[in-house]
């Protein structure tokens, strides 16, 4: 057994992946994002620059993941028994590997960053792993098993820049080593689907086993897309989605309420609804804008070039989208950045979703703030399990008998608490 433990090595997992892939087995075909110019995006700003990984490296990662999975199975850790028991066994294995290899299996610290980095960005850095440890790799495989062991995500930011044969070879290798996997997904840019890949190449992706592409549309407005330096047009959004769907691949798109700011709010919402209507993606996922520190968008906001939309405006944008989308699609609010939990299938659930939005819009100003506080607190606890010290300190003057008492706080004080919580939520 000691010899087997000596051969166990970590593999590169995808820190950034869609929420539906949280329990997927992941492998990196590329590192980071080759575009990486969107004004609003804080991701891929630290660590390695963009690169395509050699297929030999990817195959070795797949083999390493299989060795970890085999070891866990041999030790009786399936992810399907009582969670606490499996978790304890997992920790025991890691300690044994540490003794045999003489190496620390614990997670590495955050990547090195420039001095004076904004505290909020420091909060997020541990989520981004350029070189996962054995601890990270084991827990990743464990989560995949616990989630059913049937899905795989291939990252990082845009797999459509890779030739179909690369995906075919990767997917076949994954299937050979993990035969229970039934679904393969990637992130993609609509411009890549529209301009870089031919229809036949997209069909080759599908024949290779690619089931779904997650596209970050963000907006359907050319004005908004240009301001945000998204590097794609409304027409390319439409062409890329139509080609991908025609190739037989499912499309899941992301729209970002708030991306037009206060000024372009209605235009952003209306034209986004138009793109969805023309392309009928299977899923529309809402991910409300958060202005992250040390991004070009934060700089634009400081200069007065961008006025952040308030939460009521975001709710009205979502209402426009729900009301005006004319194709059959499923709306999902599966991001911690969202205030309202709006989910349903259009057109049959349209009335129910509009009613949910209208119930919020009819609240008084104070009740809207209290609604936001409760929503943001729940999101934070669900994501992290408890409050960070700075959030607790901010709430401390308004805590009574172990619970926050908002009646003692002014609207502005509550907004400060809400803003602090929102700044630490992972989208």
Describe this structure in words.
The structure is a single chain. The two termini are 42 Å apart. The strands form 3 sheets. An 8-stranded mixed beta sheet has the order 1-4-5-6-7-8-9-10. It has a two-stranded antiparallel sheet with strand order 2-3. Strands 11-12 form a two-stranded antiparallel ribbon. It has helices at 2-6, 55-74, 83-101, 119-124, 134-146, 164-177, 190-196, 199-208, 222-227, 234-246, 265-279, 296-302, 311-324, 350-361, 365-384, 389-395, 411-423; strands at 25-28, 30-31, 51-52, 151-155, 183-188, 212-218, 250-255, 283-286, 329-332, 344-346, 399-400, 403-404. It is an alpha/beta fold and 427 residues long. Helix 2 runs parallel beside helix 6, helix 6 (164-177) packs parallel to helix 8 and helix 11 runs parallel beside helix 13 (311-324). The chain is globular. The longest helix is centred in the first third of the chain and has 20 residues, at 55-74. The protein has 2 domains: 12-59 and 121-132 and 147-361, Aldolase class I (TIM Barrel); 367-423, no CATH class.
Report the helical percentage.
Answer: 40-55%
What's the pLDDT, averaged over the residues? 91
CATH class of the largest domain: Alpha Beta
Give the full name of the CATH homologous superfamily of the largest domain: Aldolase class I
Biggest sheet, strands in spatial order? 1-4-5-6-7-8-9-10
- Derived structural class: alpha/beta
- General form: globular
**Topology-level CATH name of the largest domain:** TIM Barrel
Largest sheet descriptor: 8 strands, mixed
Low-confidence runs of at least 5 consecutive residues = none
Number of domains: 2
First and last CA, distance = 42 Å
As a percent range, the share of strand residues is 5-15%
What is the number of helical segments per DSSP (H or I, 4+ residues)? 17
Order of helices and strands: HEEEHHHHEHEHHEHHEHEHHEEHHHEEH
CATH architecture of the largest domain, by name, is Alpha-Beta Barrel
- What Rg, in angstroms, do the CA atoms define? 23 Å
Q: Count all strands and give the number.
A: 12
């Amino acid at each position: 057994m000691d010899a087997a433990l000596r051969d166990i090595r970590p593999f590169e997992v995808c820190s950034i992946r869609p929420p539906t892939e949280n329990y997927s087995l992941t492998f990196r075909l590329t590192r980071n994002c080759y575009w990486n110019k969107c004004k609003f995006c804080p991701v891929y700003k630290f660590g390695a620059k963009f690169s395509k990984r050699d297929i030999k490296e990817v195959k070795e990662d797949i083999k390493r993941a299989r060795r970890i999975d085999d070891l866990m199975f041999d030790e009786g850790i399936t992810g399907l028994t009582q969670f606490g028991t499996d978790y304890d066994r997992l920790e025991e294995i890691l300690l044994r590997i540490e003794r045999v290899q003489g190496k620390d299996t614990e997670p590495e610290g955050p990547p090195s960053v420039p001095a004076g980095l904004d505290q909020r960005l420091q909060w997020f850095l541990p989520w981004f792993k350029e070189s996962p440890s054995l601890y990270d790799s084991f827990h990743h495989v464990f989560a995949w098993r616990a989630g059913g062991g049937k899905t795989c995500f291939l990252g990082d930011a845009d797999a459509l820049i890779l030739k179909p044969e690369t995906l075919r070879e990767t997917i076949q290798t994954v299937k050979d080593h993990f035969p229970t996997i039934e679904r393969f997904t990637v992130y993609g840019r609509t411009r890549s689907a529209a301009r870089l890949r031919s229809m036949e190449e997209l069909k080759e992706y599908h024949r290779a086993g690619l089931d779904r592409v997650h596209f970050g549309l963000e907006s359907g407005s050319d004005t908004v897309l240009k301001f945000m330096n998204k590097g794609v047009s409304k027409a390319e959004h439409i062409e890329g989605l139509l080609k991908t769907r025609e190739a037989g691949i499912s499309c899941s798109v992301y729209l970002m309420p708030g991306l037009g700011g206060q000024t372009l709010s209605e235009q952003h919402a209306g034209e986004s609804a138009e793109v969805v209507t023309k392309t009928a993606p299977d899923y529309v996922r809402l991910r409300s804008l958060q202005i992250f520190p040390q991004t070009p968008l934060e700089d634009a906001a400081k200069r007065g070039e961008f006025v952040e939309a308030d939460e009521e405006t975001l709710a009205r944008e979502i209402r426009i989208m729900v009301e005006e989308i004319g194709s059959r699609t499923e709306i999902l609010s599966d991001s911690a950045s969202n205030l309202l939990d709006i989910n349903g299938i259009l057109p049959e659930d349209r009335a129910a979703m509009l009613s949910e939005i209208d119930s919020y819009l009819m609240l008084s100003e104070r009740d809207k703030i209290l609604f936001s506080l409760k929503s943001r607190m729940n999101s934070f606890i669900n994501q992290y399990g408890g409050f960070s010290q700075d959030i607790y300190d901010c709430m401390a003057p308004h805590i009574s008998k172990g619970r926050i008492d908002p009646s003692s706080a002014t609207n502005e004080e509550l907004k400060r608490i809400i803003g602090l919580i929102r700044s630490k939520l992972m989208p």
